[in-house]
Amino acid sequence: GKRGEYDLRTCQQALLRNFPLIKDVMKDMDRKDFRERVVLKWCVYLLVPAHHLKRGEAHVLFYEQLATDPESAARNLFHYLNKSFCWDRVQQAVSIPSGTSFRKKDDVMEQKQLVEGWKTQFTTKQIARAGAILKAFGLDGVYDANGYPAGHEILRN
Fold it and tell me: What angle do CA 77, 143, 97 make, to 5 degrees?
């Protein structure tokens, strides 16, 4: 069922109490800016599992890797799960587009647009603000300037 407003506030209060960093970052945010709110949410979504999970206890799978190199991303996931990997079977299972798919004919262009398209939606100032939020959470090394995973470990040792 639906969670009541009280439950949501209680949950948020526990989160803010356990991770005071969130409140600190929120002080400097423009809460009316949708993009800043999205970046903050993304950081919080990573903060909790990154705090509780150690490297090897979970597999980090980046959307950007799925979009640009799905075979390698799938192979790494199957390896982590200790399952046999057959790209043809995986490709067959995931090649049927959903009803909400916006796939174009030019897959190479689409891959680049899927990963780098955000740059056209942000001003230089907004990108700098997003970078400041990521840095405050210690996540500024996760992606490079083009929006691709940079190899920074999200999960702790």
Answer: 50
Q: Is residue 119 within 8 Å of 11, Cβ to Cβ?
A: no
**Tokens, residue 157:** 């040792």
d(Cα 23, Cα 147) in Å, to the nearest integer? 26
| Alpha carbon distance 66, 63 (integer Å) | 5
Percent of residues in the chain assigned helix, strand, coil, to nearest 5? 60, 5, 40
Q: Are 113 and 120 in contact (CB under 8 A)?
A: no
Q: Is 4 exposed, middle or buried (0-12, 13-18, 19+ CB in 10 A)?
A: exposed
The residue behind tokens 């970052």 is 25
Q: What is the pLDDT of residues 3-27, one digit of tens each?
A: 555 555 556 888 888 999 998 998 8
The answer to pTM > 0.70 is: yes
Taking the C-alpha atoms of residue 118 and residue 143, their distance in angstroms, rounded to an integer, is: 13
